Amino acid sequence: MSLVPITVAKGDGIGPEIMDATLLILEKAGARIAPEFIEIGEQVYLRGIATGIEDSAWKSLERTRVFLKAPITTPQGGGYKSLNVTTRKTLGLFANVRPCRTLVPYVRSKHNNMDLVIVRENEEDTYAGIEHRQTDEVYQCLKLISRPGTEKIIRYAFEYAVANNRKKVTCFSKDNIMKMTDGIFHKVFDEIGEEYPSIEKEHWIIDIGAAKMADTPEAFDVIVMENLYGDILSDVAAQIAGSVGLAGSANIGVDYAMFEAIHGSAPRRAGQNMANPSGLLNGAIQMLVHIGQPDVAEKVHNAWLKTLEDGVHTYDIFQEGISTQKVGTREFALAVIERLGQEPQKLTPVRYNKEAKPMNSELYRMATRKPAQKKELVGVDIFVGWAGHNPAELGEKVKGAGTDALKLSLISNRGTRVWPTSNPSTFCTDHWNCRFLAASGTVVTHKQILEVLGKLEAQGLDFIKTEHLYNFDGVAGFSKDQG
Ligand code: NAD
Fold first, then answer.
1. Which of 25, 111, 310, 349 has the smallest number of Cβ neighbours within 10 A?
2. Residue 89 domain-assigned?
3. Count of structural domains within the chain
């Protein structure tokens, strides 16, 4: 049978030890892979390559499209770009998949039956990194959620559930507050969910959902969420399962995929044959499933569970009374190898779906473009930097910038309406949103907006940004009630 080429980076700190242990287990389990080694991380950064990865390494990735990556050390000091962010964005790795399962009593946890998978959107949200300081006092980070980006991640979550015999997909969002961004995430979840009648679906507002997950994680199966929420809650889930050190993660794109441990390079433990290779091994197990070798994945996973069940533990999970042997990295790997072909007796063995088809990339290439039939410009939010404190004073100045086409309708400060009426207790900063609206039923032009801006400029007011207010097929594309 032909071997699947994969690109492997041993990384920094404990990286080389845990990678050697992982590759040895894969080899002995009969993984049909041909590793190609590349160098990434500290030494590459220190050679002056700001991304931590050489061009020649990209060539290997272009050939193999599968990346098994050990953790790296990002040198202290400025100027170094996060290799993870670069890889995710460059290779279009839109889905981050983190399974979190409890292994009580072998790995200590307050929960018994947790077995959930977090599917986190990996490319959008506040992680676009578009930030501005707009006034002396106010800093802004743009949260961008696109319909095609959302469709990809939601569909991936449902496809993952089907391929992995999961029963339920839960969506976490905050659409009671962010009605447009989180609103579209929830809406697309409902739309795409209809295509998967065999999967149970539910939506939780993220705050109470997160509380429920921390308290009763066994109530969840697959949970899909936006980037920032997923970043935070996937660490919470890994931690309450017992140890961040055991969790692996897959970063999946249409053309490429990257697999890793979620922990870092633990430099203080490096070179001592102490580190637990389980996080990286769990990433590698996800890789085996991805490249169509679920048989090997199952064999490795069950041998790993049996090793833990037999009490063969590295220092980080060692417990008096439960553990039988404290072993180093290499000995742990040899213990797993010895158990290849065996299954755990007390923990539930894993079963991977041998019939699962490889990921259908075409499902994710088609971005839905459903342009509105009618997009009408009905006003503009003009943000003004103004150091005064009395909204009525600003209102008088700004009102004069109105024209026949566009009239000042309200001023808000950090989302709270302060003009034409205000509450003296409302705290105001130096960042004011002046909303100009067209008369009901009419539309305006860009030129008419420029006329308003011209009048504000003539008054010496510092407009720091504009947001156009559109109706899409008669539905407002902006939050209406401010305050
Ligand atoms: P870390 O995850 O490396 O270590 C945190 C703690 O966990 C340490 O006490 C360490 O001893 C322990 N630990 C981690 N992995 C372990 C393992 N496999 N076995 C046993 N114990 C383990 O986090 P940190 O100390 O904050 O970061 C160290 C370096 O790793 C930094 O340079 C950071 O930038 C980098 N980092 C890299 C990645 C990555 O490459 N994906 C992720 C996170 C951090």
1. 349
2. yes
3. 3
**126: its two tokens:** 């506040």
Same domain, 208 and 150: yes
pLDDT at 228 over 70: yes
Whether this prediction's pTM lies above 0.85 is answered by: yes
Residue 238 Cα to ligand 1 middle (Å) = 14
Q: Which domain holds residue 410?
A: 375-476
pLDDT tens digit sequence for 52-76: 998 889 999 999 999 999 999 988 8
**325 and 410 part of one domain:** no
CATH number for the domain spanning 337: value is: 3.40.718.10
Closest CA to 89 of 54, 35, 125, 136: 125
Q: Enumerate residues lining ligand 1, CB below 6 A.
A: 14, 18, 71-74, 84, 245, 260, 263-269, 275-276, 279, 316
Residue 483 has pLDDT above 60, yes or no: no
The closest-lying atom of ligand 1 relative to the alpha carbon of residue 75 is 32
Cα 243 to ligand 1 centroid, rounded to whole Å: 12
320 falls within a domain: yes
pLDDT tens column, 85-116: 888 888 999 999 999 999 999 999 999 899 99
Structural domain contains residue 483: no
**Confidence at 482, pLDDT banded by 50, 70, 90:** low
